[in-house]
Amino acid sequence: EKRLMVDNYSKLTAYRKFTPRATEKFRAMEQRLYKLFKVRRHASKGVSGAWLQHTARTLWHASTTVSQARKFRASPGWLSNWCKRYKVAARAPTKRKEKSFLDREAMMREWLTNLRLLLQRAAP
Asked: To 5 degrees, how large is the angle CA 65–CA 67–CA 71?
C-alpha cells in the first residue's frame, strides 16, 4: 500500500510539471498592460501597484466571457511576478529639474547678506 501511494504521488508531481503555466492564458492581456504602463510612465504619470491591478482586471474582463473573467484576480503575487517578467520596478516620483545655480544665486546672496548683518548685531 505504501508503494502504491508513492507511485501515485510521483505520477501526480510528474503531471504537475508538464501543465501549462497560468500566465500563458494571460499573455496577451499582460502585453497590453505593459504597453499601457510604458505610455503612462512616458507621460510622467504615476503608476502604482493598485493602478496596474485595476487595469489588468479591466483588460481581462473586456477580453473574456463572464465565467472566465472570474478566474483572474490580479493578486499581489500576480503583480509581483508580472513586475519580474517585464522587469518593472517601483520608482519614486522625482522632480524633472532642480533650479540651476544661476537661478538660486540672487536668493543665496541675499540670505548671506542678512546672515552677515545678523552676526554683526549679535557680536559684542
From this structure: 105
Gap between the Cα atoms of 110 and 38, Å rounded = 44
Contact assessment for residue 49 and residue 79, using Cβ atoms and an 8 Å cutoff? yes
Give pLDDT tens digits for 62-104.
887 777 777 788 899 889 988 988 888 877 666 556 677 787 8
Q: Give me 36's grid cell.
A: 499601457
Cβ(55)–Cβ(33) under 8 Å? yes
Task: Supply 65's cell numbers.
Answer: 466571457
Q: What is the pLDDT of residues 26-68, one digit of tens each?
A: 788 899 999 999 998 888 788 889 999 999 999 988 887 777 7
